[in-house]
Amino acid sequence: MSEPVRRIGGALALLAALALPLLLDDFWLQTGLFVMAAVVGAIGLTLLVGRAGQLSLGHAFFAALGAYTYAWTAGESGGRAAGLGLPPVLALVLAGLAAAVAGALFSPISGRLRGIYLGLATIGLVFLARHLMVNAETITGGFNGRAVESFAVPGFSFSNSDPDYLAVAGVELGGLHRLWYLFLAVALLAAWIATNLVRSRTGRALANVRDSEVAAAAMGINVARAKVTAFVVSSAYAGIAGALMALAYGRIAPDVFGLQLSIDFLVMIVLGGLGSIGGAAVGAVFVVSLPLVLTQYSSDLPFLAAPGSGGLDAATVSRLLYGAAIIAVLLFLRGGLAGAFDRLAFRSAAAPDPSGLPPAPAPRTGAETTPTVPSPGVPTRSKETTP
Questions:
Q1: Where does the record place the region Disordered (predicted)?
Q2: Among 221, 95, 250, residue whose Cα is nearest residue 158
Q3: Residue 368's pLDDT is what?
Q4: What is the model's pLDDT at position 49?
């Protein structure tokens, strides 16, 4: 697909994302918040797994660290769970930094392991996070969790409690509308940074490490440093995603950040296409929105049963669809949805002329040389055409 077409498509998608909050109800607005938070986390994981070739099942740990860092630093003191009362903007930055530092501390282990062994090691982080979230009650609120301070910037609040009236095209922008635009800005910034990272020298080094560590070291690439960079960047993305999830929920609890969340992130990037920024976003839309939509409209779908009734509920059906989608991608779409889209665009660009006529040959100029057929033992000369 040509670059102008990509830019036009991106501009149309951006305009649609800006206009959707004016048309959607609260359910779809809330779903959009969860999706955009997951997009940020999925982009970070595809940089680690798809670009650097490091398998991680501990993404939920870094997301939990970012979520509770934001809730603790932005929360007010008092009550069961204390807080520092810092500005929410600073708290959001600290959420990413805390996760990045945790990723750097784990990097000595990630630098020595790879493949399934690294994946098993990162699972331990999820169980560690569960223990800390349940027992560090003064910070996390324990098993019942804690409330999350609403996001705000100086002079403007993103919550429904803001007394200032703000409307666009006759639609009053409440808390969900404002958070939509905040999440959209963060997701676009995350995608832009990741795209530039992939195209940079660091991104090419990560791809070489993924393909062959021995060959990368022979080319002068510091393999250990490249692995640390990938893990730190991915952890920072997960921390920001966790903070966005906390803002979307309004209250966080340990059950939100279990091993299932890490698996969901991995499913997102596999379905979208490993290493693809756009594919990670598409996979996040599918994985996050599917169970929410099925639950919302379960009463209108005859094949869905009520939760706990013993039949197929929305959560079970969504897991079955995840499994079927993963099998289909692994068998028929090795590059994921992003790879299938690129192949479809390439075929469309390479389609033959509908007239059936072959392309006209390029005109010859007088400065061109006419090749001669060499004869055995006879030197060859090129005969130049005279003007």
A1: 351-387
A2: 250
A3: 44
A4: 93
